[in-house]
Specification:
Elements lengths: L1 H17 L7 H27 L11 H16 L8 H11 L2 H7 L14 H8 L1
Helix pairs in contact: 1-2, 1-3, 3-4
Length: about 130
């Protein structure tokens, strides 16, 4: 599980930093994120699901890695809606996970889920880390 979570943390960091890039770097950064996601990270998770034929990453029960994978998938799709186009098993994984009662409730409009970064927070974060 830890190996999967570590890889997902790397992808997560790329996504989170995207919102803080200067406007003239956003397009290039998005291309970099999508390149790494579709050529490095997502193929690994697609292969894991294919190789063991289970519904989840580790065995056949929900783990922390599954929640992290879903979170990254949702964020990638916010950046590029067709991010999973080449990954049918990840598409099925997302559908299964999104239909779990507690996750489905969380993803409904009006839920506590917030954007990756709220626009009002960007100046404060940039001031802290500049």
């Amino acid at each position: 599980i830890d190996m999967y979570v570590e890889g997902l943390a790397d992808l997560n960091e790329l996504i989170l930093h995207h919102e803080f890039k200067p406007a003239n770097e956003m397009e290039k950064d998005l291309a970099n994120i999508m390149d790494k996601a579709t050529n490095r990270y997502l193929p690994v998770f697609e292969k894991v699901l294919k190789d063991h034929g289970q519904d989840f990453l580790v065995g056949n029960k929900l783990s922390k890695a599954d929640v992290h994978l879903l979170e990254n998938i949702l964020w990638l799709e916010e950046l590029k809606p067709d991010a999973l186009a080449k990954f049918p098993l990840l598409q099925s994984f997302k559908a299964r996970m999104s239909n779990m009662p507690n996750i489905k409730k969380f993803l409904q409009p009006g839920s506590p889920k917030k954007p990756i970064v709220q626009e009002k927070d960007v100046p404060n974060v940039l001031a802290i880390f500049s």
